[in-house]
Backbone:
């Protein structure tokens, strides 16, 4: 008798489990579809386009900075640092971003965390250099970049940073040399192509500037770079 | 007597047919298999990027990086899900995977977003730790798949050696990746201890050497012994994975993206071959192979777009930042993919194996293993 009951209870339990599975599946599907619709609608309404092909977690922060929305940029950088505090490079990028967004203490705190992860690493020196650059302390920034380059002559962003300082100091030949070195190490840095274009314009070589702005625009078509490209084209045509 | 004669006659004939280095039995053709499934194209592209001789190639790649990522990597992630839900009997055989896991994933994702410090960053570290394992498992799966297609019997001992050779790059990644693997699981103070650092450094160097030396030694040993020979394409797939995980800086964004593109290509190629073979064998099939392949890929591409390009924006609408939404969506999709893969390629008597391992030819080149053996966990485990 007892033996006879077992299969029945087992069947009932199996049915219950199957019902639960089906319910879970429908709920999951509903949430997923709702998320897709919400995501599409959000971008369509706020940006008047479909979501584009971009998977860089920093893209929104950079765009916000470019548009002068420092609060939104800072929020993005803080969110990234919270969820990815073990990623050394991302932590440094978030630190620099926070300084640019006006949150220098927040940036310093992240640089401190990165320093604790890799004490004395040239990339921490580079980020410190950039933080000083964005706060217009150019001599101190140059010193940090040079220190990073002594530790690692292949530190691309230190070359690029030193070039930015030299541009600010109107030492164009040195800026150009640093930018060419940076682009030799990594030809895909849009900001370095843009700065090299600026150096060429300022030293009377608009044709070469057009080439550099053109590459920068292909890599990152921000409004600033596109404006530079148009201006350089105008100068080259004269 | 007749049977003995037949066996005695076919064995030398088979041996005579083989070239000195056995290239393997291709699925599509030698060029396609060596470049895409074996990873040869990835080595060419990465060598070009590393040499710095063509900066315009780097610029072109960076310019179109996310398009390539969508076409290959995003589609490959979606591919395992499409495969799961289109494989006959999936709902019956794998109820938790098909019906329970999606909801569990959504809940974990939501909790990760709400608790980024306590859960979110651990999800990210888990995905980064698991990913090299997944890559190594895929290299192993591809290597064994071509071995089966070569028709040579493999015993457990030989498979264990091959597995060790394939997983050495994972061990290297586990020991060295910042923010994942050992650095995630061990306290920083313990790792900073000079003795621990020295042991870790030695182990990482040993794993680095083993990543290249072990598969090469295995290949040479097989060539010398003259039996159960590892095809050249299997060696290429294992070495390509070693290059991806060991020689290249795994966390540099562009290199990482390029590696994921080629990993995705490998996976999509095998998955599409399996899908098309199954569809072509269906009774009443009237469509040509290309139509099945195109239809399958279109579904993978569409789902890949929704998962990676659209989904993170939903959480932005809910008040989270885009960066953390994207990172956690990517983490959860990766973990879901690793779990699904481990099951869909592991089932015994899974039709995938018969479809993938069969050479399509006849006679000596056909698969000589009983279906259960060909369908073992080792025949193509694209994931861990």
Residues:
């Amino acid at each position: 008798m007892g033996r006879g009951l077992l299969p029945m209870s087992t069947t009932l339990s199996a049915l219950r489990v199957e019902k639960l599975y089906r319910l879970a599946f429908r709920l999951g599907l509903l949430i997923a579809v709702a998320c897709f619709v919400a995501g599409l609608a959000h971008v369509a309404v706020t940006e008047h386009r479909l979501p584009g092909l971009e998977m860089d977690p920093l893209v929104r922060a950079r765009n916000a900075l470019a548009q002068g929305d420092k609060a939104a940029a800072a929020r993005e950088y803080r969110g990234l640092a919270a969820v990815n505090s073990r990623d050394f490079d991302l932590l440094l990028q978030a630190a620099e971003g926070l300084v640019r967004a006006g949150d220098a203490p927040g940036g310093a705190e992240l640089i401190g965390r990165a320093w604790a992860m890799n004490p004395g690493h040239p990339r921490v020196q580079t980020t410190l250099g950039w933080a000083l650059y964005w706060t217009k302390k150019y001599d101190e920034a140059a010193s940090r970049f040079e220190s990073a380059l002594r530790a690692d002559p292949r530190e691309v962003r230190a070359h690029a940073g030193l070039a930015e300082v030299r541009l600010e100091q109107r030492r164009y030949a040195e800026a150009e040399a640093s930018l060419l070195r940076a682009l030799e190490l990594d030809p895909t840095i849009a900001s370095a192509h843009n700065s090299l274009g600026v150096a060429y314009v300022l030293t009377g070589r608009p044709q070469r500037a057009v080439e550099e702005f053109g590459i920068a625009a292909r890599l990152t078509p921000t409004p600033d770079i596109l404006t530079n490209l148009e201006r350089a084209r105008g100068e080259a045509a004269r | 007597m007749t049977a003995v004669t037949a066996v005695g006659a076919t064995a030398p004939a088979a041996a005579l047919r083989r070239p000195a280095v056995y290239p393997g039995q291709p699925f599509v053709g030698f060029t396609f298999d060596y470049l895409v499934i074996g990873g040869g194209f990835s080595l060419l592209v990465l060598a070009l990027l590393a040499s710095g001789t063509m900066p315009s190639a780097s610029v072109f790649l960076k310019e179109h990086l996310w398009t390539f990522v969508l076409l290959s990597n995003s589609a490959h992630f979606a591919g395992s899900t499409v495969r799961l839900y289109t494989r006959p009997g999936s709902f019956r055989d794998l109820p938790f995977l098909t019906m329970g896991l999606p909801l569990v994933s959504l809940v974990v994702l939501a909790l990760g977003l709400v608790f980024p410090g306590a859960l979110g960053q651990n999800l990210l570290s888990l995905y980064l730790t698991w990913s090299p394992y997944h890559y190594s498992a895929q290299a192993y799966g591809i290597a064994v798949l071509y071995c089966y297609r070569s028709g040579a019997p493999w015993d457990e001992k030989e498979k264990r050696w091959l597995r060790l050779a394939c997983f050495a790059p994972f061990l290297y990644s586990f020991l060295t990746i910042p923010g994942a693997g050992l650095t995630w699981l061990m306290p920083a103070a313990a790792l900073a201890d000079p003795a621990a650092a020295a042991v870790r450094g030695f182990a990482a160097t040993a794993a680095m050497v083993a990543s290249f030396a072990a598969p090469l030694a295995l290949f040479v040993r097989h060539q010398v012994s003259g039996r159960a020979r590892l095809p050249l394409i299997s060696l290429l797939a294992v070495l390509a994975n070693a290059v991806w995980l060991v020689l290249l800086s795994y966390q540099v964004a562009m290199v990482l993206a390029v590696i994921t593109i080629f990993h995705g290509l490998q996976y999509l190629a095998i998955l599409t071959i399996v899908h098309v073979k199954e569809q072509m064998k269906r009774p009443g099939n009237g469509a040509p192979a290309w139509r099945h392949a195109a239809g399958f890929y279109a579904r993978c591409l569409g789902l890949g777009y929704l998962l990676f390009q659209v989904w993170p924006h939903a959480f932005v609408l809910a008040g989270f930042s885009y960066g953390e939404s994207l990172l956690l969506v990517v983490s959860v999709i990766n973990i879901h993919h690793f779990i699904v893969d481990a099951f869909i390629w592991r089932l015994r008597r899974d039709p995938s194996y018969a479809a993938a391992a069969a050479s399509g030819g006849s006679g000596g080149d056909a698969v000589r293993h009983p279906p259960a053996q060909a369908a073992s966990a080792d025949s193509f485990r694209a994931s861990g």
Q: What stands out?
A: The CA atoms of residues 75 and 318 of chain B lie 26 Å apart. Residues 18-374 of chain B form one domain. Chain B has a mean pLDDT of 84.
